[in-house]
Amino acid sequence: MLNSPSQAIRSGARSFERALFLVAFLALAYVSWIEFDRLSYQRIESARLSSVAKNAVSQGLAPASRKRKPPVASEVIGRLTIPAAEIDAIVAEGVDDPTLNRAIGHIPNTALPGESGNVALAGHRDTFFRGLAKLKLADPIQLVTADGTYDYRVEDLRIVEPTEVGVLDPGSSPTLTLVTCYPFHYIGAAPQRYIVRAREVRRPAAVRRAPLAPLAPNTDLDRL
Amino acid sequence: MKRISNIFLALVLAVSTAALAQDAMNKTVSGHVISSSAFDLAIQTEAGTRLNLVLDSSTSKPAVLAAGDQVTVVYRTLDTGGFQAIQVLEGNAATEPAKAAGSTTRTVTNVGSPGTGGQTGDSHTSSVGTTGGYQAPAPPTRATKDDSSMASMDHSMADTQPMPRTTPDTMDHTAMANDSMSNDKMANDTMANDKMASKNTMANDASLPKTASREPAVFVFGLLALGAAALLMRQRTTH
């Protein structure tokens, strides 16, 4: 039982203070967990991707000889490396929250590396794609997959409205499009999108020799 | 004071719960299967509209889904504007058919998606717009075309789309193809009507992926809470 109004105020302040500490702890723990999860995922999947690529080379499997299957959600597609933007991160299938928290996402139904068309990737502007702002025209981009390394050169940088989805349309030559939110320094859902378009300049020798066959419809879902 | 702090705490919890629950909202719809594959499912809802859904390895579904089967689908909306099926149940178990029918203006996205062109009509029950390629929903690119062109595209596809896997060397096959084509036309007429009716809604729904994470906002919120708590503690201990 509280004896005076001042005691009641003090008690209330203490409760409020505890509640704030609890909220702060939960918020910071959440952020720490997401960060830890992301780093772990990146490390593990990078190692796995390297291992798969080495096995493919050692077994002499040309990409065309492998059975191509559509990627399932969150399946690793490759690793994106952009030295000028200090980006080196795993690319996984899908643009849902869990995938984008852990990796750069491949926008579903756009081309895959090795196919003709536009390979479209999306990433959080405050994590993987933070460095995109530093990118300039003609900067190199590499997409490392199990088939080998695809080289691209930046040929267009632009800011568009979120509804301008024409940037995902395939062009006349194989391209790579990176999508992130704009402005970069903005908390919450940013109003615009930053688009980096790059043209493919070199693809793995094995893919050049034996272009990948188009995906067969309704293939089973087992992984590569 | 205690009351105020309780109200504040309740507000904080309510706001964070609402934010977290926003993405977890699932909808239910029931209807008849138009076509299905390992990666997608097209159904005709009870409201008469077509709904294209993406299936993946996490989707719970019956082993066989034949055209015409009555199903109830629990699904969620993807950031890309498509729909992912979470659970497919046989029979009509929908609890919110009216609510689901209310989403008909957002249904049509999977027409001629890039990377899957020429892969339609995988079985005789498939219809135009059924993609046989990637598991994911069609990108918003197609949904943002001018609606009149979309409508005309659908009609032209319905009129000219061949049945690639149908071999007209027997009467049975030919009959199946004819039935299928007329069904396809009906389905596409419905699709075109839906698109024209939902002109504005579709334009609003088609957008590039959202690439803002919650982390910075949560981090700033946590820091503010920590700062406020530290300030309060200092005030309390100094007085």
Structural notes for this entry:
- The complex is a heterodimer of chains A (about 220) and B (about 240).
- With about 220 residues, chain A is α+β, with helices and mostly antiparallel strands.
- Chain A has helices at about 5-60, 95-100, 205-210, and strands spanning about 75-80, 85-95, 105, 120, 140-145, 150-160, 175-180, 190-200.
- Helix content of chain A is about 30%, strand content about 25%.
- In chain A, strands 1-2-3-4-7-8-6-5 form an eight-stranded mixed β-barrel.
- In chain A, strand 1 (about 75-80) and strand 2 (about 85-95) form a beta hairpin.
- By secondary structure, chain B is of the alpha+beta class.
- Chain B is built from seven helices and five strands, in the order αβββββαααααα.
- Chain B has helices at about 1-20, 95-100, 140-145, 145-160, 170-195, 200-205, 215-239, and strands spanning about 25-35, 40-45, 50-55, 70-75, 85-90.
- Chain B has a five-stranded antiparallel beta sheet.
- Chains A and B meet through helix 1, helix 2, strand 4 and strand 7 of A and helix 1, helix 3 and helix 7 of B.
Question: What would a concise description of this structure say?
Answer:
With 224 residues, chain A is of the alpha+beta class.
Number of strands of chain A: 8
Radius of gyration of chain A using CA atoms only: 22 Å
From the spread of the alpha carbons, the general shape of chain A counts as: elongated
Approximate strand percentage of chain B: 15-25%
Name the helicity range of chain B. 40-55%
Q: What characterizes the major β-sheet of chain B?
A: 5 strands, antiparallel
Overall structural class of chain A, as computed from helix and strand content, comes to alpha+beta
Q: Which sequence of strands runs across the widest sheet of chain B?
A: 3-2-1-4-5
